[in-house]
Write a structure and sequence with these properties.
Elongation Factor Tu (Ef-tu), domain 3; 6-stranded antiparallel beta barrel; alpha/beta; 372 residues; SH3 type barrels; 5-stranded parallel beta sheet; 7 helices; 17 strands
Length: 372
Amino acid sequence: MKHHRIVVGLSGGVDSAVTAHLLKKQGHEVVGIFMKNWEDDDDSEFCSSNIDFVDAAAVADVVGIEIEHVNFAADYKDRVFAEFLREYQAGRTPNPDILCNAEIKFKSFLDHAMHVGAEKIATGHYARVRLNEATGLYELMKGLDNSKDQSYFLHRLNQSQLSKTLFPVGELLKTQVRQIAEEIGLPNAKKKDSTGICFIGERPFRDFLNRYISKEPGPIKDPSGRSIGKHVGLSFYTLGQRQGLGIGGIKEKGAQRGGGEHTPWFVARKDMDKNILWVVQGHDHPWLLSPQLEAADASWCAGRAPTAGMYAAKTRYRQADAHCALTSSNAVEFALAFDESQWAVTPGQSAVLYDGEVCLGGGVINSAVTFT
């Protein structure tokens, strides 16, 4: 095996720690970099970057590698957070983790790593990369642990980025990663997995958005057009949302489509022009089901747009692959028609396309057809 100088993104978590250990064990020259991506009100109450750096430094000590602390906060604010706010202000629901991977972890971080002499970079993502000998193209593949697969978040990586990236734990189950961490005495072997994005942390999401996005209250209406409550601003709601609507006590007389008395309410539509939040009763109300979608801002990690045909797709991360037909596609747009209607397909989220284990790429959901 050829040995490389590899820079590992050490987050303070167990996955990146085991990544560094595995590469060092293989004989590579390994250097750790801790990325600081957020500075505003960075405190241990909500955003744990200071604690995470201490953990990352402890890991570097055990593994026996150097670690560098690099600040990408300015890049993050310009290229990820600004887009995040623009999307929410427009009433859409973005996925900043996807943008962070494309713009920071595999662009700013990759550029820095190459600048300090790296031949490859590695992260603790549950995914795999392989070179297809027949086509000469790199393929992004699902991680072997299906419950932890993170290829959905990585679909915007391009061929150049994939060619320089390693995902060692993508070949393992999470239980195996934890076991390795225990065996080599990593201090973070039992550390809980991080959830969400750092600049929000565990704080109430609405409180956070409130600081940056203007509020314009308006009516909440049911399918019959009846006003049943008041929303605080359309940006603060997402399709399929059940909690925090403030209308839990409203009951319908008799049954209605998709639900009835005592049935919970869900956000189904947002009318930005009229500032109306439309809600429905029942998880399977027709307004929440979409047989088709259109996506834009496509990014094909496979190196080219796929041809029309049958594939599988995810319209959100925690979702089983859904069989679908790619009815049209080009470098920037595509359309999907699903065998079974998908629930709460949300503009701003990503639709990611798969051919078996191979992630082909995806795009940002623009619109979805729902039943009237």
